[in-house]
Write a structure and sequence with these properties.
The complex is a heterotrimer of chains A (about 230), B (about 300) and C (about 450). Chain B has about 300 residues and is α+β, with helices and mostly antiparallel strands. Chain B has helices spanning about 20-30, 65-75, 95-105, 130-135, 180-190, 200-215, 220-230, and strands spanning about 1-10, 35-40, 50-55, 80-85, 85-90, 110-115, 120-125, 145-150, 165, 170-180, 230-240, 245-250, 255-260, 265-270, 285, 295. The chains are: A alpha/beta (about 230), B alpha+beta (about 300), C alpha/beta (about 450).
Chain lengths: ~230, ~300, ~450
């Protein structure tokens, strides 16, 4: 199917979440591209989950949990706020939230880009496995908990316990850090950090300078079990 | 595990709308709590000396009027009853302790759900939409309300185990989460002579906070202390004569969302429950931070 | 008084434990399941036919073993030829060849296998006709494409060896391939979360299950697995959250690596867990609609029969599978030649029959290892044949007992076919003590 992508409107009130997702997984993906508008989300959960298509999806209003869960290739935008675990396990593609995200945004994300233009709450980027997350506002406590790889960029402040049990993911914070988690430490920004941050900010649509950010990474002291760590480490 | 809802109406003229605002919220939270549901409503105070007592009977055709007559005769006073099936609110100037004692002796099947000058409590087993319909929640008017849908985690499904839990007067609590040390809290309170009705962990939280209030703490202080004493995951919403108070534990793993406009403040476990409130499109919506006590007070004319 | 009197509570094992703790400053980590003495299915026996009941003939008079799981909501429930399934064990904990052998045997016998902590390997998907895909707290290697290729999904809340604990894999088993699948640096000690990253509590589990259903378009069954602890409450909550199948793993359940203190002191015996789970399903009114799979120390066809009689729809086996492949055997095939590998056990400080050293990655028989030289000791074809033999024996033992109870279908076994040999077993399994009508704790 060639030509200009046509915009399809799916009404959650009429179709229900199942109807919307069935269309997206069926005709939507078969079309091989196109624009979809989802209206009247009314905070419903599980909208646009499990997509694997070159689709542009706009959700007009606030959505619930797991928006864009396990996304592949699709570009999803929420013109509102979202509940828990937006873009959980995202594999590729983009999810953008114009409002705020509730807890666990980008949980276990493995690729692609998640942009939260407002604030994200606790545990943003928990267990991330390679995705990039850019937050225009603040993130809540325990963000990037056990984050394995990938990048979290926070333009605002970060709550307590940032990067607790961090593996190889990197966190950049422009504002205040309320507290670092176990094994997380601040490190000096290098030129390549600055470049990396600015590239992500550009993709996300924010204009800050990379040098304004602090770098947080793992001290790697928890990588091997040994007695010297003391009982508090476990 | 459960669903929590709460609404506080800011403008006096909108108080008649309280019920219509909260019923869709409760119905929405049915998915989080299919076992039982309840609602506590705060409205105009009874005259000094009089109290409202919310009552529950297992029998939908319970003879409430007979109970009111006998109670009044035996205790030499009057009790006015407004009843819906098996729930009733008795207004009386008789001392609540005397009424409780009389009910225990003469009508042991009846439970007292709550006492206060402003607070009425309704709760029963069943699905939230059915309970809202059976007790006509939509007609309720008042300044603020606290509601709950329950998915039982450990203790039984029974009307007594439904939330809101109450203690003292004009005090109620709903809880989403699971306390990990409820039994030791209960034993500490029982040692002080405080009696429990159920083995529900939420009742432990309720009676502990009520105990602190009785000891002179204000609500914010009591809930601040509760954060240290209660262990586990909890989002607590407390209703008192003054208003609503909300707190989340340090891990904040049980969800909560707050929306506020010039006309109302609403709390729910999921945004979905707030999605149909009038003015939600322009509301200030935020997620309460862990370990912070949020209070909203009713604006009462002096 | 003898000069050598061992203390009951400060016995040799306890003394060794304290000595090691004092020397190393770290808790003991090991593989397999609880080794302590526990009430087990051995404490139950069947009341087979005599005069009051008629037995069925072997061979000619059919005893059906067909088992269907996931009838509540899925468009494609799982149909198995035997109620004995293979429990989740990770690639990482096990070698790729072990996973392949397991898949091939399961396919030949007509049952399912389950992925583990680390994700789905292509070999496993190809070897297993029916594959259950686990969704664990760690989400290592979790991939929606694998989700869509799975025949069922198992949301793992916990396991019997360590209810409330997360996964663990020590650095010596985090090879390059394992590390890549798990998105971890090679050679580090893997710490796993004990809670899921994107949901907490049964109320939110309901939403997560809905998400998994939406992603897979409601095609496949969704299992919820947990370690046996507060079984009654957990089963009810899992049902309320929307589970199609409940998997209860008793404390005897194995692990590739966990803290010793967890393995031995957390969770309840499988025997005690089954009746609680069944009662919970009955109280919810979903017995038969939501199926129950029981695991944790299932070793023989008699164990399978007893689990079914108590009300399970199926069992899952883990440790027993490894033993069938050669775990704790003195011999292994090295380059096609069977030879004695006792010396390799001794290098680990153990011996055949005593080994629980899966966590070291030095498995002398090539099962729980990532070392190419050790992996070679397990030939997938031979392993598959051994496991297939064992699964057939289990199924035959199951039908032998079922026929002797007069059942033409193993799922017609019922708790009234059982009595207990000890008071503890009678109380836990809620069946009468043999020769009496007494169930401790019930009625006058």
């Amino acid at each position: 199917m060639g030509g200009r992508p046509r915009a399809v409107t799916l009404d959650v009130r009429a179709l229900g979440v199942r109807g919307v997702n069935a269309w997206l997984h069926g005709e939507g993906q078969a079309a091989g591209g196109g624009r979809v508008e989802i209206v009247h989300p009314d905070g419903a959960h599980n909208l646009a989950v499990g997509l694997d298509a070159d689709l542009d999806v706009e959700i007009r209003g606030h959505a619930g949990y797991f928006v864009g869960g396990m996304n592949k290739r699709a570009r999803i935008t929420v013109d509102g706020s979202v509940g828990w675990s937006v873009a959980e396990n995202i594999m590729s593609g983009t999810v953008r939230v114009r409002g705020n995200a509730s807890e666990c945004a980008g949980a276990s994300g493995r690729g692609g880009l998640l942009v939260i233009e407002g604030d994200a709450a606790a545990r943003c980027g928990i267990s991330m496995k390679g995705c990039d997350i850019v937050v225009g506002g603040d993130v809540g406590h325990a963000s990037a908990f056990m984050a394995q790889t990938g990048t979290l960029v926070v333009c605002g402040d970060a709550g307590a316990g940032l990067g607790d049990s961090l593996y190889e993911a990197t966190i950049y914070v422009r504002g205040r850090i309320e507290g670092l988690g176990a094994d997380a430490r601040e490190e000096p920004m290098t030129a390549s950090d600055v470049t990396r941050v600015e590239a992500l900010l550009r993709r996300a649509g924010f204009a800050h300078a990379g040098v304004e950010f602090k770098r947080v990474a793992s001290a790697r002291t928890l990588y091997h079990w040994h007695a010297g760590l003391g009982h508090g480490a476990y | 595990m459960c669903g929590i809802v709460g609404v506080l109406v800011k403008r006096e003229r909108a108080r008649t709308q309280l019920g219509t605002l909260v019923v869709p919220m409760l119905a929405c939270m049915d998915a989080r709590g299919p076992d039982s549901a309840g609602l506590a409503v705060f409205h105009d105070a009874t005259p000094a000396g009089a109290r409202r007592m919310s009552l529950f009977a297992p029998d939908r055709a319970y003879p409430w009027c007979t109970l009111a007559d006998r109670l009044g005769a035996d205790l030499d006073g009057t009790a006015t009853i407004v009843a819906h099936e098996n729930l009733a609110v008795a207004t009386s100037s008789l001392a609540p302790t005397a009424v409780r004692a009389w009910i225990e002796t003469h009508a042991p099947a009846v439970r007292v759900l709550g006492v206060g000058r402003r607070m009425d409590v309704y709760k029963d087993v069943g699905r939230a939409p059915d309970i809202a319909r059976r007790f006509d929640f939509a007609r309720l008017a008042g300044t603020h309300c606290v509601g709950h849908t329950r998915m039982a985690t450990e203790s039984a499904v029974s009307p007594a185990h439904a939330h809101p839990f109450t203690a003292g007067e004009d005090f109620c609590l709903v809880h989403n989460g699971s306390l990990s040390n409820p039994h030791m809290i209960r034993r500490q309170l029982e040692a002080r002579g405080i009696r429990f009705e159920t083995d529900n962990d939420s009742e432990a939280a309720c009676r502990w906070i009520a105990w602190r209030l009785a000891e002179g703490d204000d609500v914010e202080t009591a809930l601040g202390r509760a954060l240290r004493v209660l262990d586990g995951f909890f989002t607590l919403l407390v209703g008192t004569a003054e208003g609503l108070t909300l707190v989340r534990d340090a891990f904040a793993c049980k969800p909560a969302v707050v929306a506020e406009t010039d006309d109302w403040v609403a709390v729910a476990s999921e945004f979905r429950a707030l999605a149909h409130l009038p003015g939600i499109a322009d509301a200030d919506i935020f997620e309460p931070r862990p370990e912070r006590v949020y209070t909203w007070a009713v604006d009462r004319e002096p | 008084m003898a000069d050598r009197e061992e203390s009951f509570s400060f016995n040799r094992h306890v003394l060794a434990y304290i000595h090691e703790a004092a020397a190393g400053g770290l808790y003991d980590i090991r593989g397999l399941g609880a080794k302590r003495a526990l009430p087990t299915f051995d404490d139950l026996v069947f009341l087979t036919a005599s005069l009051s009941r008629y037995p069925l003939e072997g061979y000619r008079e059919r005893c059906s073993t067909r088992t269907v799981l996931g009838t509540r909501s899925a468009k494609k429930p799982i149909t198995l030829e035997t109620p004995i399934t293979i429990a989740g064990m990770s690639f990482g904990a096990l070698s790729a060849r072990a996973k392949e052998a397991i898949g091939r045997a399961a396919t030949a016998v007509g049952t399912s296998t389950t992925t583990g902590d680390g994700g789905m390997t292509p070999e496993e998907r190809e070897a297993s006709k029916t594959l259950v895909y686990q969704c664990l707290p760690s989400r290592y290697g979790f991939d929606p494409d694998d989700l869509r290729r799975a025949d069922a999904i198992e949301v793992v809340v916990g396991q019997g060896a360590k209810p409330g604990g997360g996964g663990m894999l020590l650095g010596q088993k985090i090879s390059e391939r394992v590390a890549e699948m798990r998105t971890l640096p090679a050679g580090i000690d893997q710490r796993s979360a004990c809670r899921h990253p994107d949901w907490t509590g049964p109320d939110d589990l309901a939403i997560k299950i809905a998400e998994l259903r939406e992603i897979t378009d409601w095609q496949v069954p969704i299992y919820v697995k947990f370690g046996a602890s507060r079984v009654r409450n957990d089963v009810k909550l899992a049902v309320k959250a929307g589970a199609d199948v409940i998997v209860v793993d008793g404390m005897q359940g194995g692990t590739a690596a966990s803290q010793q203190v967890f393995i031995e002191h957390a969770g309840i015996p499988t025997l005690a867990a089954v009746p609680q789970a069944v009662e919970a399903l009955e109280e919810m009114g979903v017995l038969g609609t939501v199926q129950l799979v029981v695991s944790g120390g299932i070793r023989t066809g008699a164990d399978v029969a007893k689990a079914l009689a108590l009300g399970a729809d199926a069992v899952a086996i883990g440790q027993a599978v490894l033993v069938a492949l050669g775990c704790n055997a003195a011999h292994a095939a090295d380059g096609g030649v069977h030879r004695d590998v006792t010396a390799d056990y001794e290098r680990l400080g153990t011996a055949p029959g005593f080994c629980h050293h899966c966590h070291t990655g030095q498995c002398p028989v090539g099962i729980t290892t990532q070392h190419p030289e050790l992996e070679r000791r397990l030939d997938p074809a031979e392993g598959a044949q051994r496991l297939r033999n064992y699964l057939n024996v289990l199924t035959m033992e199951l039908t032998t007992l079922a026929r002797a109870c007069g059942k033409s279908d193993v799922h017609h076994l019922e708790r009234e076919d059982l009595v207990a040999l000890t008071v503890e077993a009678a109380a836990m399994a809620k069946v009468p003590l043999a020769g009496t009508s007494w169930i401790p704790g019930e009625g006058p």
